[in-house]
């Protein structure tokens, strides 16, 4: 089985979000970049398929050279090789189209991408990729088993979950639950050394027009002071929630 | 021309978000001079849509669509959009709508903006505000394609009643067997309990509750408020509560009217996930807990005393106001 794991290079979850150039650009100053958490759950599940079922795992990212440390980290965790499509990821459709080319050329049986990146939260790349390639698609996936060319997946739905079956090739929009948080791996020294020797192919992008663009960023309006209520005066809290906030 | 909305339903009844996107589409139609057409799948009674400004409802009735299937539903909406010549298609941000949206976007060759929180700033060029960085910021996104797809964030626009009634028309899209290649084997859904996705009020517990055995009072508080229960990441990581209750950046997003956090310190990742909620109440014994800076109302006190007392007072309040 050939697996492709799509890796988004995103600011660490603890990052303070600031913008530069008249709020037109994310300010990367002092920001640490990591593998998108939703992608990392998928990568870890892919490692399981590699170890238990002999799958070959490639990781891919659409981005400039600055994203290579993130790909090297994925290699250090255990992916066999990496591909970087050398382009700025301008929108979800652009990224999905670049990935579709990689998927078609590589003949992957299973593609795992995070359900969304934690920076742009578009939530569209896995579904668009499935549409562009014609592969089956399961989003918000929290459990995945493969036997031969058949997949059984658990999908999180509002208020519960459902079990679905389909054949490969399959595209997964993954998230926590594909593996547990405690299953995530920190690369060890041997992994890091080996990652340096692994193949990282740089491809040039397909020429393509984005369909959406970010014109400007905004930060939320500053929050007013919290209104503190004494534990002995909970009637006042209820009164304010009822009369002032009008939420109960 | 028409703005097309897909009005989601559950067990044959329209969901509240259906009326919210109808309200949004009506307001947008007021700017552009369009009409509003809804497409509904296996819903018996759609008359209420007229009260939110829908002009026409395309009613799809098909046994094959009795269970949600992203490709098939995307196909239905695409055919409805083409039939109506719709240049704007509006859907909600439910799990199912987010599943079908990217498929629909590719099929309609539409630019897609998800998590939209307001009417367009301008319609030419078409620019809308959406959340980004998991609610830590917004961005203004320009959609440059002829057909535009908008996923509206829950509770971001609200319900706006309008005068009028909607005409109805049976609509029978042609479905391809290939749409059903992903087969649903079983659905496991809690019934009779408010879900985090649909809840107006969410009561959430953190590590400050000291152990899973203490969740009774969280459930009682949720019961009296008609709320869903949720928890912070450490609580789900320790197995005190199921993962499905984990809210935050890597868990479920919460966009409730009221979010009550008990014993949650307010890590930046947690705040990101719940930030879209309108009013936040924090109960915590530590006055330095960062969550107080993000809260609207706060009680500095021992949760084991405050929560049971609050439950009693809310019961009295509900008795007086019902």
From TrEMBL, chain A:
Domain Electron transfer flavoprotein alpha/beta-subunit N-terminal, which positions?
Answer: 23-212
Q: Carries keyword Cell inner membrane?
A: no
* Domain of life, source organism: Bacteria
Name the family the entry cites: Belongs to the ETF beta-subunit/FixA family.
**UniProt-listed InterPro entries:** ETF_a/b_N (IPR014730), ETF_b (IPR012255), ETF_beta_N (IPR033948), Rossmann-like_a/b/a_fold (IPR014729)
Name of the featured protein:
Electron transfer flavoprotein subunit beta
> Can you quote a single GO CC term?
cytosol
**Pfam families from the entry?**
ETF (PF01012)
An example molecular function term from Gene Ontology annotations: electron transfer activity
Q: Which PANTHER family match?
A: ELECTRON TRANSFER FLAVOPROTEIN BETA-SUBUNIT (PTHR21294), ELECTRON TRANSFER FLAVOPROTEIN SUBUNIT BETA (PTHR21294:SF8)
TrEMBL record, chain B:
Start and end of every Electron transfer flavoprotein alpha/beta-subunit N-terminal domain? 3-184
Instruction: Please list the GO biological process terms of this entry.
Output: fatty acid beta-oxidation using acyl-CoA dehydrogenase
Report the Pfam families cross-referenced here: ETF, ETF_alpha
- Tell me which residues bind FAD: 207, 263-270, 284
What Gene3D superfamilies is this protein classified in?
HUPs, TPP-binding domain
Q: How is the cofactor bound?
A: Binds 1 FAD per dimer.
Required cofactors, per record?
FAD
Keywords (A to Z) from UniProt: Electron transport, FAD, Flavoprotein, Transport
Signal peptide interval: none
Give the top-rank taxon of the lineage listed in the UniProt record for this protein. Answer: Bacteria
GO MF, one term, reads: electron transfer activity
Q: Return the similarity comment.
A: Belongs to the ETF alpha-subunit/FixB family.
The protein's name is Electron transfer flavoprotein subunit alpha/FixB family protein
Origin species? Sinomicrobium pectinilyticum
């Amino acid at each position: 089985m050939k697996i492709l794991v799509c890796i988004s290079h995103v600011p660490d979850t603890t990052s303070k979000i600031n913008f530069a150039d008249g709020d037109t650009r994310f300010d990367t100053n002092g920001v640490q970049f990591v593998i998108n958490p939703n992608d990392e759950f998928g990568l870890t599940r892919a490692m399981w398929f590699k170890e238990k079922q002999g799958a070959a795992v490639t990781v891919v990212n659409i981005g400039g050279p600055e994203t290579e440390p993130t790909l090297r980290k994925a290699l250090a965790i255990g992916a066999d090789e990496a591909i970087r499509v050398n382009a700025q990821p301008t929108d979800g459709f652009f990224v999905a189209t670049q990935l579709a080319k990689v998927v078609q050329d590589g003949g992957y049986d299973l593609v795992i991408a995070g359900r969304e990146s934690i920076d742009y939260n578009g939530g569209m790349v896995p579904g668009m990729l499935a549409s562009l390639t014609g592969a089956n698609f399961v989003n918000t996936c929290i459990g995945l088993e493969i036997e031969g060319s058949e997949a059984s997946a658990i999908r999180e739905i509002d208020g519960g979950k459902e079990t679905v079956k389909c054949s490969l090739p399959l595209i997964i929009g993954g998230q926590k639950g594909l593996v547990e948080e405690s299953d995530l791996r920190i690369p060890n020294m041997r992994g890091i050394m080996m990652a340096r020797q692994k193949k990282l192919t740089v491809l040039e992008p397909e020429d393509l027009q984005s369909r959406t663009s970010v014109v400007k960023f905004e930060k939320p309006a500053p929050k007013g002071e919290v209104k503190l209520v004494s534990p002995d005066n909970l009637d006042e809290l209820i009164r304010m929630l009822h009369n002032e906030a009008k939420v109960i | 021309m028409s703005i097309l909305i897909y009005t989601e339903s559950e067990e044959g009844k329209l969901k509240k978000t259906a009326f919210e996107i109808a309200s949004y589409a009506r307001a947008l139609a007021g700017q552009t001079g369009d009409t509003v057409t809804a497409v509904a799948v296996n819903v018996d009674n759609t008359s209420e849509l007229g009260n939110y400004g829908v002009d026409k409802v395309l009613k799809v009735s098909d046994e094959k669509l009795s269970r949600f299937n992203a490709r098939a539903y995307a196909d239905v909406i695409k055919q409805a959009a083409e039939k109506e010549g719709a240049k704007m298609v509006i859907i909600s941000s439910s799990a199912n709508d987010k599943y079908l949206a990217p498929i629909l976007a590719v099929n309609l060759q539409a630019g897609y903006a998800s998590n939209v929180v307001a009417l367009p700033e301008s319609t030419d060029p078409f620019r809308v505000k959406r959340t980004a960085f998991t609610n830590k910021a917004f961005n203004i996104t320009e959609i440059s394609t002829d057909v535009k797809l908008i996923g509206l964030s829950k509770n971001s626009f609200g319900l706006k009643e309008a005068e009028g009634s909607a005409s109805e028309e049976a609509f029978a899209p042609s479905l391809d067997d290939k749409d059903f290649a992903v087969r649903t084997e079983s659905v496991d859904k809690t019934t009779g309990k408010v879900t985090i996705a649909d809840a107006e009020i969410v009561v959430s517990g953190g590590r400050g509750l000291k152990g899973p055995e203490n969740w009774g009072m969280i459930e009682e508080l949720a019961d009296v408020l008609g709320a869903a229960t949720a928890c912070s990441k450490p609580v789900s990581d320790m197995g005190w509560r199921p993962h499905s209750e984990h809210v935050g950046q890597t868990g479920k997003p919460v966009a409730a009217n009221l979010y009550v956090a008990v014993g949650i310190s307010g890590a930046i990742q947690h705040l990101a996930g719940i930030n879209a909620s309108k009013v936040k109440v924090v109960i915590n014994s530590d006055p330095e807990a960062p969550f107080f800076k993000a809260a609207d109302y706060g009680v500095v006190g021992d949760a084991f005393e405050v929560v049971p007392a609050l439950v009693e007072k809310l019961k009295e309040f509900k008795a007086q106001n019902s």
